[in-house]
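Wed. Picked up where I left off yesterday with Putative malate oxidoreductase [NAD]. The coffee machine is broken again, so keeping this brief.
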Amino acid sequence: MTTATQTAARRKFRSEDGAFVTTARGAEVLDTPLLNKGTAFTREERAALGLEGLLPPAVLSLEDQVRRAYEQYHRQPTDLHKNTFLTMLQDNDEVLFFRMLAEHLGEMMPVVYDPTVGEAIKRYSHEYRRPRGVYLSIDEPERVEAALADTGLGAGDVDLIVASDAEEILGIGDWGAGGIDIAVGKLAVYTAAAGIDPARVIPVALDVGTDNEELLNDPDYLGNRHSRVRGARYDAFIDAYVRAASRLFPHALLHWEDFGPGNGRRILQRYRDQVCTFNDDMQGTGAIVLAAALGAVRGAGTRMREQRVVVFGAGTAGVGIADQLRDAMVRDGAEQAAATRQIWCLDKPGLLTDDMADLRDYQTPYARPAAEVAGWRRDGGIGLPEVVARVRPTMLIGTSTVHGAFTEAVVREMAAHVNRPVIFPLSNPTERIEAMPEQLITWTGGRGLVATGIPVAPVTYEGVTYSIGQANNALLYPGLGLGAVVARANRISDGMFATAAEAVAGLVDAGTPGASLLPQVDNLRAVSATVAVAVAKQAAAEGLARVALTDPVQQVQDAMWQPEYRPVRAG
Ligand SMILES: NC(=O)c1ccc[n+]([C@@H]2O[C@H](COP(=O)([O-])OP(=O)(O)OC[C@H]3O[C@@H](n4cnc5c(N)ncnc54)[C@H](O)[C@@H]3O)[C@@H](O)[C@H]2O)c1
Ligand SMILES: O=C(O)C[C@H](O)C(=O)O
Ligand SMILES: [Mg+2]
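Structure written out below (tokens, as returned):
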């Protein structure tokens, strides 16, 4: 369906007592994914909506349809085919798509989301079938508001917008127009995991061009065919988006995804005190890693304030994690300056030190005094092996996109000095991960407390099976978003992330040998509900809620959209 017909169709139905009332008839009904039930339309609905000749005679249930769709899914030969199949299903019938996803969440998350979504993003212009979302172009900044209005949605109709400029998609870099798929994928997880109503969200591509020459030279490429615009024009475009989105949809939470390190933090700092907004890679990631770290610290029987943390890859995610671990050490009794000194950050030039000329502003607080490391071995810069040998870290975090960076020598050195080494290779997708959990468990003799960004199978080592938690922001942002929506929060605060992390950590018992540091993805709906309640309460406690929270547990439950067919009436 084109955006225009989607607009028309959206205007053509409204909710009434749990039912839909629509002025659409015939093929137009079948072409509206939020309305369409296909073979599950009842005889009465078929008669009323002009569908009698347009569907085969049998009337199926949603369960019948899920069974058939699941078989079709399994006949797809590769994960990319499966991803394409699911996209088409979503474009045809959203309830069916979300019901099947909900029933097979652990199995299908890696296909709709990370890691397969990375493959789909690279192939976007080639696998393209239908548009989904809003495409905003830097070449037409004056059209931003009109383009958002093209959705046909009104001021009270939107809870959430996910936007990406696609400069740093996962760990695979700049994928231009394909970046719309990370916004679509994140939103699918919001609905599957937290019951965010799929009719009340918008994925947005902020197309500012691309520096990916492969795309620029690809005749099929669907985005703006020029290099990335930067500087004042970029800022004005982002500003036009924020202003238009807040004017048209004053309740919407604005989620930023996969921006480059130069822009992500700057944008957040500019808008965080003006509108309800957060950066998922910095803050969502920081909070889920904090949750895993809290679980690990409990499992290891140590204290947060005693941790020595090495962060390898001091970009958007790495420094976002460092900030939240530092704040957690402070909450556990450490002085702010002392907590900051317990974190060592490395980037391309090695350990960050205060004599480096081109540190980014957000890296500066973590730069070590050059004098402190004057005697450390240099190989160009001070590399990870030397830092690990000197620092004897309790935690090693990977957000570098460097596959294999956590070598056997580095891990064995770390494990030689710490009882329960905490190791989180978080880079996505699989081709970027710093080490595989199986290696980490083996090299640490089963003592490692491990979590990854991608989903991985359990590891068996010397008779113990280790369940590997997925420290992916997908365990956090859906509940955070739901909590913010339920409270109608007007800002997203640091306190909301801290409380969300505590809520997730409270759901696991990392003390049992082999236990996961994080809840299982199959339990995501329950996790998200718990996070949402904590976040909504925190919003109220900080005076950021715009509705009264009389019974937050019930309010969260009531707000969760369920993948069930509603009656459709002709109106
Ligand atoms: N698990 C999660 O939930 C999660 C969340 C966000 C990001 N990530 C992953 O983390 C990785 C980084 O994402 P980001 O958004 O922070 O990207 P980013 O580009 O902002 O940061 C990556 C950093 O790694 C540095 N780096 C590159 N090569 C290096 C090397 N050889 N040695 C040391 N540092 C090096 C870069 O200079 C940059 O500062 C990606 O793979 C992404 O998928 C995971
Ligand atoms: O999308 C993910 O899987 C997590 C994270 O936002 C990332 O950029 O890697
Ligand atoms: Mg991301």
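Quick read: The pocket of (2S)-2-hydroxybutanedioic acid (ligand 2) is lined by residues 114, 170, 258, 280-281, 428, 453, 472-473 (CB under 6 Å).
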